[in-house]
Write a structure and sequence with these properties.
The chain has 168 residues and is α+β, with helices and mostly antiparallel strands. It folds into two domains: 99 residues, no CATH class; 51 residues. Helices cover 38% and strands 29% of the residues. It is built from four helices and eight strands, in the order ββββαββββααα. The two termini are 20 Å apart.
């Protein structure tokens, strides 16, 4: 099926690559789009919002969907972004599979928890020694909280999404 326009919430996108498939009755869309900086910002905001949102396939239908993991790459003034959309029905019907990427994910979680504790202790030690004031500690924590979503998005940045293989 060829879709010329995909509307995700209020964001209209023109895919230059589009694939869709059904797993039972659940639709999975894999599209690639070129975004302006403004569109990229809007997409990031949507990813922080509600889990599910309306997706309109121009001339076909509108479904309630969510984002999957999506890679992106910068190209001058443009950002190439893959858009992986998962039908809500997939989440409702899909059997829960065993952990993918184990033991990697378990090991990453362990290392992340340890690193988080080390950094927390470091900040507490600096504060207790008078090298950081409470207001500075609160500012550090606030900035970290505000930036965490954007930092997580960096995990999916690649050199060029057109040179990468699709993965769900």
């Amino acid at each position: 099926m060829e879709i010329k326009k995909l509307k995700i919430g209020e964001l209209e996108l023109l895919p230059y690559s589009y694939k869709e498939r059904f797993e039972e009755s659940a639709l999975i869309i894999e599209a690639k789009v070129e975004l302006t900086g403004e569109q990229f910002s809007k997409l990031k905001q949507m990813m922080r919002g509600n889990r599910y949102f309306q997706v309109e396939r121009q001339g076909v239908d509108t479904r309630e969907m969510r984002f999957g993991l999506m890679k992106w790459s910068e190209h001058g003034q443009c950002i190439k972004h893959e858009v992986l959309l998962i039908d809500k029905e997939y989440d409702l019907k899909a059997e829960k599979s065993p952990l993918l990427y184990d033991p990697e994910i378990s090991n990453i979680q362990d290392m992340l928890a340890e690193t988080t504790e080390i950094l927390g202790e470091l900040v507490n030690t600096l504060e207790n020694k008078g090298l950081l004031h409470t207001i500075e500690v609160e500012g550090i924590k606030s900035k970290a909280h505000d930036r965490v979503h954007d930092r997580k998005r960096e995990f999916y940045k690649v050199h060029d999404i057109d040179e990468e293989k699709w993965q769900i």
